Structures are given as structure tokens and as C-alpha cells.
Task: inverse folding
């Protein structure tokens, strides 16, 4: 990953209108991924953070790997915000996908990380455990003709699907695992073969105003990272307490996410309430969010212009010529 200002502007603001996408970009930073591996994936728990950082491959993909049968081996493409976009056809996209190498055992792991707003079956319409099993199964079957050929099933790589659930109550912080195992239901047969090929990991963090820090170091770090605190406060805590290095890219990702949070809060409370009085609260909040998105898109274009991106580059990332002209006018006015 590059640490230039241009990389910050383009990568962090690529889809600045989407809070969910910004969370994915933030979680995809190698410093964050390394700590998730250390504290949530058993095989990496005894490795120093520095070694885990170098074990993570350069193939980090964000929202680009389709799960539909026959499509899983498509090469890396541009970042996509499309998820579950073809009802009835089963096309789904991983949030974050990457490989990691356990140096001591010389073992390769295929990792998938999902940011999930809710685990509640009442909100999802299904049990999250079943979706995790589906993802694990696709990560296994997609290895044919990529990780192994013909009938060489012993070359299957271990897969880990990690799910970060964001809406738990004050006492809901936890880490759970779903494993494949083998049991003898009749007879005395023993088999020592390692069945730990696939494992689902659910990391539950708390929402709202949290009174006490979690006793789990990973959950505590993630709650600080995704909190409503200012970027400066997050930088201080992540540096002093968790030993992170504030690269341009990581700072940019945190700033973009905080800007988006503030845009929604500011407009939905001020404009939303005003419009709510006139046309109904629901309509006002909807308008407020729209204005927040417009504001953040212009902010994103401004950042890219300041970083030296051309008009053609900015338009290629999905922004309009009108937005480019508006951002230029704002910069000229404030110059």
C-alpha cells in the first residue's frame, strides 16, 4: 500500500458517499488486519505484530470478489460497492479478502473479513451463522484450479471468515467461533487428522456510548477505531495504547469516516429537523442525509484536487464534471 497524499485522496475518498465502504477501507489497513489476526485467529496469536504485518499478502481486495458459483476465480478488479445485487442469482461480494502466511508452519491462510451492522435474525431475515457457513463453503470450493488441481484435496488451504458485528449492547462484547470437527458416534475409532480446515469467527463490539473499556484488547481497539471520537483523539489512543503508526493512508481513512459521520449528524439534525417540521420528520431526515452525501462528495473532490488529481482522474472515480467545477469554485473562493 502506498503512503502518498494522492493515494490517500483517491483511496480514502473513492466512495466517500458510503459510510459502509469507508469502514471497509479503514479495516483493510494492514495494521488493523494484523491485530485482528493476532487476537482472533488462533494460529497467529503467538506471532509478534511486526511478523504478522509482513505475513499479509499484497492481494487485499475490498468488495471485489464475487461468491457466485463459477465466478470466484475472477482476478482483482476496481473496488466495487455492490453487495447482494442480483436477487435470485446468488451473486455476493466479500467485504475484504486477503491471504496470510504463517511462517513457522509454512501454511497459507485465505482470510475474509466482513463488517456486519447487525447479527439479529429479526433484522437480517436469516441467522448469521448460516451465512458464515455459506461463505466458508465458497472459500473452500473456489480453491479448485487455483490452490489445488484434479483430486489433490490435501492441498486445500485453511480458510477463516471473520465477522465484525457492530450493534451489541453494553455487555455484548464477545468473540465466538464456528468450527468443523469430527466425532465418533459408534465404536472406538480414533483419527488424529487435523480437521481445522475452515473456521468462522464472530467478533461482537458494542454500539452507543460505552461506559467501560472491553477487557478484550482487540474489541477495545476496534471500538475506539469505529467510535464517534475525533480523528485526533483516535490517533492519540491508537498510537499510545495500541502502538500503531499513523501513516498518511490510515489517517486519511479515519478522517473520511469521521467526516461522513459528522456530515450525517450535522445535516440530519439541523436540516432534518427543519424539514421534519415542514414536511414530516421522516422526509426531513431523508433530505438531510441526501445533503450530507452531497457535501461529503464535494469534500472528497476538493481533497483530490488539492492532492494533484486531474479532472479526468476524478471523473473516472464516479464523480461528475459539475461536482468538479463546484469544488474548484469553493477552493478558489477560499484561496
Result:
Amino acid at each position: 500500500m502506498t503512503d502518498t497524499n494522492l493515494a490517500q485522496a483517491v483511496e480514502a475518498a473513492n466512495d466517500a458517499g458510503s459510510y459502509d465502504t469507508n469502514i471497509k477501507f479503514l479495516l483493510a489497513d494492514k495494521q488493523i488486519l494484523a491485530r485482528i489476526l493476532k487476537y482472533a485467529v488462533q494460529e497467529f496469536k503467538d506471532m509478534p505484530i511486526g511478523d504478522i504485518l509482513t505475513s499479509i499478502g499484497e492481494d487485499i481486495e475490498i468488495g471485489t470478489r464475487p461468491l457466485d458459483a463459477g465466478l470466484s476465480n475472477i482476478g482483482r478488479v476496481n473496488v466495487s460497492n455492490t453487495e447482494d445485487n442480483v436477487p435470485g442469482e446468488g451473486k455476493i461480494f466479500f467485504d475484504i479478502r486477503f491471504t496470510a502466511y504463517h511462517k513457522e508452519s509454512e501454511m497459507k491462510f485465505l482470510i475474509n473479513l466482513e463488517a456486519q451492522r447487525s447479527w439479529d435474525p429479526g433484522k437480517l431475515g436469516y441467522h448469521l451463522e448460516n451465512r458464515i457457513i455459506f461463505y466458508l463453503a465458497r472459500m473452500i470450493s473456489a480453491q479448485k484450479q487455483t490452490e489445488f488441481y484434479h483430486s489433490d484435496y490435501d492441498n486445500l488451504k485453511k480458510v477463516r471468515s471473520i465477522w465484525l458485528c457492530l450493534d451489541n449492547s453494553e455487555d455484548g462484547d464477545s468473540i465466538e467461533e464456528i468450527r468443523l470437527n469430527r466425532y465418533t458416534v459408534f465404536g472406538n475409532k480414533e483419527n488424529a487428522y487435523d480437521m481445522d480446515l475452515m473456521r468462522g469467527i464472530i467478533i461482537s463490539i458494542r454500539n452507543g456510548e460505552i461506559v467501560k473499556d472491553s477487557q478484550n484488547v482487540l474489541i477495545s481497539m476496534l471500538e475506539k477505531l469505529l467510535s464517534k471520537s475525533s480523528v485526533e483523539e483516535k490517533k492519540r489512543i491508537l498510537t499510545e495504547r495500541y502502538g500503531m503508526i499513523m501513516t498518511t493512508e490510515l489517517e486519511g481513512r479515519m478522517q473520511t469516516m469521521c467526516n461522513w459521520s459528522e456530515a450525517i449528524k450535522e445535516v440530519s439534525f439541523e436540516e432534518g429537523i427543519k424539514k421534519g417540521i415542514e414536511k414530516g420528520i421522516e422526509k426531513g431526515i431523508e433530505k438531510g442525509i441526501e445533503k450530507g452525501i452531497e457535501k461529503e462528495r464535494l469534500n472528497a473532490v476538493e481533497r483530490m484536487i488539492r492532492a494533484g488529481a486531474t479532472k479526468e482522474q476524478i471523473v473516472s472515480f464516479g464523480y461528475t464534471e459539475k461536482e468538479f467545477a463546484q469544488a474548484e469554485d469553493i477552493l478558489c473562493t477560499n484561496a
Q: What stands out?
A: The chain is about 45% helix and 15% strand. The CA atoms of residues 267 and 288 lie 5 Å apart. Strands lie at 61-62, 96-102, 107-116, 158-168, 174-179, 198-206.
